[in-house]
Design brief:
It contains 2 helices and 25 strands. A 5-stranded mixed sheet has the order 18-22-21-20-19, with no helix packed on it.
Length: 335
C-alpha cells in the first residue's frame, strides 16, 4: 500500500487533536435561574447584596430584567427609557443604592440602523436609583462620525466608576464621585480592545482584559503594564477574555469563543500569571458565555448570550430555535 506523505499525516493528526480539544467538557456549573424571554440576548448580570436581587441586561431589547430573591422576574428598565441602546456591562453599588450600566449602539439592538463608517456609534454610562428605577444621570459620547463602545465597568470603594472603551480610542474612562464628570483616565498602546475588568481587593489595581492579554493599571497613577505570562498560558485573540474578576489573588476569566471559565493564579506582587486552571468547559448550557458577578465564593455568569444567532440583517431565527437565557453558578475554592 502506498504511504501517505508525511505532511498529510501531520494535517490529519492536527485535525484530530483540535477536534479532541473542542470536545473536552468540564461541567462544574449548575443552573442558578433562567429567564423566559428567549430573545433577550443578555450580555451582563449584576447583583444587589442588600436585597438579594439580580439584574440582567439585554443587548436585543435594551432592557434590564430584575429577578428578586423569590425568583420573581420583572422589567426594571424599559427599552429606550433613558435613550439607552444595548445594555452591556452592569454593576450594582449597594452602598449608594445605585445601578450603573454601559450602553452602546450595535446591530443586536432591535431597530438599530446607524452605520459606523458614516454616522458613527453612540455609547454611554447610565446611573440609576435602585429604589425607584429612575435615571440619576447619564454620561454619553454621541458625535456623528465617531465610533464609541463602552464595554464593562467597575466601582471602587470610594464610589468612583471606571469603564473600558474601544474603537475610536482604546482607553479607560473614569467618573470620579465628587466631580461627577466623564473623563479619560488611561490611554495606552498596551490596551487593545479593552473588555472586562475588576479591581484588586486592596483597591490598588485595575486588571483589564483585552485582545492581547491582561493589563494592570495603578489606580493612583494610571500607570499601565502588561501582566507577564508563564507556563504556556494563552489569553490572546480567540483565547482572549470577556468578563474578568479578581478573587483571592487570582483572576476568573470568561473565554467566550472557547466556552471556558478559567482561573489564573497571580504572582506576588500581582505582576504575572503563573498558571491557569480550567473550571468549566463546554457546559451544555453555554452558547457564547460573556460576563458575570462574584457573590462570596460563587461566580454567577451569563451562559448563553446567543450572539452568533443574530442574522446579518439584524433579525433572529424563530423563537423555538433560541434558548432561554441561563445564568449559571460556579462554586470557587475558598482558599
Amino acid at each position: 500500500m502506498r504511504k501517505a506523505p508525511i505532511y498529510k499525516l501531520l494535517i490529519v493528526l492536527l485535525y484530530f487533536i483540535n477536534t479532541s480539544l473542542l470536545s473536552q467538557s468540564i461541567a462544574n456549573s449548575s443552573v442558578a435561574f433562567t429567564i423566559s424571554e428567549r430573545d433577550l440576548l443578555p450580555e451582563s448580570v449584576g447583583y444587589d447584596d442588600q436585597t438579594k436581587t439580580f439584574y440582567v441586561g439585554s443587548t436585543r431589547k435594551g432592557t434590564i430584567v430584575k429577578i428578586d430573591k423569590e425568583g420573581k422576574q420583572s422589567t426594571f428598565i424599559e427599552s429606550g427609557a433613558f435613550g439607552q441602546w444595548m445594555i452591556i456591562g452592569i454593576k450594582v453599588d449597594s452602598e449608594r443604592n445605585e445601578l450603573w450600566f454601559c450602553s452602546s449602539g450595535g446591530g443586536n439592538l432591535i431597530g438599530y440602523l446607524k452605520k459606523d463608517e458614516t454616522e458613527g456609534r453612540p455609547a454611554g454610562i447610565f446611573k440609576v436609583d435602585l429604589a425607584t428605577g429612575k435615571l440619576k444621570k447619564k454620561y454619553t459620547l454621541e458625535t456623528e462620525g465617531e465610533v464609541h463602545f463602552f464595554n464593562d465597568l467597575v466601582i471602587d470603594s470610594n464610589g468612583n466608576v471606571y469603564a473600558t472603551h474601544m474603537f475610536s480610542d482604546h482607553s479607560i474612562y473614569k467618573i470620579e464621585r465628587e466631580k461627577d464628570e466623564l473623563e479619560v483616565f488611561v490611554e495606552s498602546d498596551i490596551l487593545k480592545y479593552p473588555n472586562g475588568m475588576d479591581i484588586s481587593d486592596d483597591n490598588q489595581f485595575l486588571f483589564v482584559a483585552h485582545s492581547e492579554g491582561i493589563a494592570r493599571v495603578a489606580l493612583q497613577t494610571g500607570k499601565t503594564v502588561s501582566l507577564d505570562i508563564v507556563n504556556d498560558v494563552n489569553i490572546t485573540h480567540r483565547e482572549s477574555i470577556d468578563g474578568l474578576y479578581f478573587y483571592k489573588n487570582t483572576l476568573i476569566g470568561v473565554q467566550s469563543d472557547l466556552k471556558r471559565i478559567t482561573q489564573y493564579q497571580l504572582s506576588r506582587p500581582a505582576d504575572a500569571i503563573m498558571q491557569e486552571k480550567e473550571l468549566d468547559i463546554n457546559h451544555p448550557a453555554m452558547d457564547h458565555p460573556t460576563t458575570g458577578v462574584l457573590i462570596d465564593n460563587e461566580f454567577y455568569y451569563v451562559a448563553n448570550a446567543q450572539f452568533e444567532k443574530v442574522n446579518e440583517d439584524g433579525s433572529l431565527p424563530p423563537m423555538h430555535e433560541l434558548s432561554e437565557p441561563t445564568i449559571l453558578k460556579l462554586k470557587l475554592e475558598k482558599e
